[in-house]
């Protein structure tokens, strides 16, 4: 199927009434832009002459930025350090209109920062500052209390796991309990927390690599067409049984995405990207758009189609980026 523009417009008009909570590992994405004209005499590396710097919300924070860009209200639950990057991230989120009442500031954990040095649109190097988040019992209880309060104010949830320590079983259980009681959809963007019980969520959205890893199978490479990829289809069956989601969405990069649900035939949605500059954050855009569409009344396939178009917009931009409703509709028309 292919969603019609009139239907997409009707769904997008409902986005401003949606309130999305993102739960997960918050990061600050820092970009240093410059140009290269020579190699360093000290080592065989390029010398980057800095022209400008910028910072944007990254990791789970990028889901909140995507929600705000699409016109929805964003709420954020996660952890930052009591440091300058943490203050900068909270300031950027606040500037976009996101609520940070459920963000816990911990003195012993530095805010995760990913610095990318770019020269002429090419990434030269990435430098990461991070440390695994650890909660004591009191801090975990406080975080779950804030999380529960935030869950009572929203219409959809995204659990964005980067395996930095925020997403753990008690957090998942809190989300599942309150969201289940309120009947709001929950989407999971998993990483490598293999021990977590994430059964019965509305949507699970691994990429191909994550899907194979969680299924415990080795990936020997994609087939020409996803629906003829026997190993991928076996992975889909394994994850449907293991996670029991309402819908499983496996993102496949240039091959688009695969949709599966219990008792239904697997469906392939081809990519809508016209040109690709940067894949950073495209998965965040997909799950944000999909969950907002579900909350707005879309069916699973409609939500996936809309999300696929949104991804086509952001991969045409450099760096961690977002997509607006106007850009999405213009892209569909184009």
Structural features, described:
The chain has 334 residues and is α/β, with parallel strands linked by helices. The protein is 36% helix and 27% strand. It contains 10 helices and 13 strands. The strands form 2 sheets. It has a 9-stranded mixed sheet with strand order 5-4-1-8-9-10-11-12-13, with helices on both faces. A 4-stranded mixed sheet has the order 3-2-6-7. Helix 4 packs parallel to helix 5 and helix 9 packs across helix 10. It is globular. The model has no long low-confidence stretch (mean pLDDT 94).
Average predicted local confidence, pLDDT: 94
Radius of gyration equals 20 Å
Proportion in helices: 25-40%
- Could you tell me the number of beta strands? 13
Q: List low-pLDDT spans.
A: none
Distance between the termini: 18 Å
**Which geometry do the CA atoms define?**
globular
- What is the spatial order of strands in the main beta sheet? 5-4-1-8-9-10-11-12-13
Structural category: alpha/beta
User: Assembly state here?
Assistant: single chain
Number of helices: 10
Element pattern in H and E:
HEEEHEHEEEHEHEEHHEEEHHH
Strand content: 25-35%
Largest sheet: 9 strands, mixed
Summarize the entry for a quick read.
The chain has 10 helices and 13 strands.
Question: How is this fold's topology laid out?
Answer:
Layout: H1 5-13, E1 19-24, E2 26-39, E3 46-59, H2 60-69, E4 73-81, H3 84-95, E5 99-106, E6 112-119, E7 122-129, H4 137-151, E8 156-160, H5 169-182, E9 186-189, E10 203-204, H6 208-215, H7 230-243, E11 247-251, E12 257-260, E13 267-269, H8 282-295, H9 300-314, H10 325-333
Parallel strand pairs: 1-4, 1-8, 2-6, 4-5, 8-9, 9-10, 10-11
Antiparallel strand pairs: 2-3, 6-7, 11-12, 12-13
Helix pairs in contact: 1-10, 2-8, 4-5, 6-7, 8-9, 9-10
């Amino acid at each position: 199927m292919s969603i019609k523009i009139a239907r997409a417009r009707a769904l997008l008009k409902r986005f401003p009434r949606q309130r999305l909570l993102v739960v997960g590992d918050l990061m600050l994405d820092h970009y240093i832009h410059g140009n290269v004209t020579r190699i360093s005499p000290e080592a065989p590396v390029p010398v980057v002459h800095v022209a400008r710097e910028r910072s944007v919300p990254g990791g789970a924070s990028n889901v909140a930025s995507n929600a705000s860009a699409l016109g929805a209200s964003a709420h954020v639950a996660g952890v930052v350090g009591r440091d300058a990057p943490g203050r900068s991230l909270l300031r950027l989120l606040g500037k976009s209109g996101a609520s940070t009442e459920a963000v816990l500031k911990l003195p012993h954990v530095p805010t995760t920062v990913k610095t990318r040095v770019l020269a002429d649109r090419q990434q030269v190097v990435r430098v990461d500052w991070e440390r695994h988040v650890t909660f004591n019992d009191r801090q975990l209880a406080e975080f779950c209390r804030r999380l529960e309060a935030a869950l009572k104010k929203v219409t959809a949830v995204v659990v964005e796991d980067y395996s930095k320590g925020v997403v753990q079983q008690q957090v998942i259980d809190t989300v599942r309990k309150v969201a289940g009681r309120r009947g709001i959809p929950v989407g999971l963007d998993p990483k490598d927390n293999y021990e977590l019980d994430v059964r019965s969520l509305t949507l699970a959205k691994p990429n191909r690599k994550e899907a194979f890893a969680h299924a415990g199978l080795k990936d020997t490479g994609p087939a020409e067409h996803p629906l003829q990829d026997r190993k991928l289809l076996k992975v889909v069956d394994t994850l449907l049984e293991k996670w029991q989601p309402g819908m499983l969405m496996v993102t496949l990069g240039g091959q688009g995405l695969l949709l599966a649900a219990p008792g239904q035939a697997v469906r392939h949605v081809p990519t809508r990207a016209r040109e690709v500059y940067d894949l950073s954050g495209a998965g965040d855009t997909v799950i944000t758009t999909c969950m907002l569409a579900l909350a707005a009344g879309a069916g699973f396939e409609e939500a996936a189609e809309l999300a696929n178009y949104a991804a086509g917009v952001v991969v045409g931009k450099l760096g961690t980026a977002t997509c607006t409703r106007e850009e999405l509709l213009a892209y569909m028309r184009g």
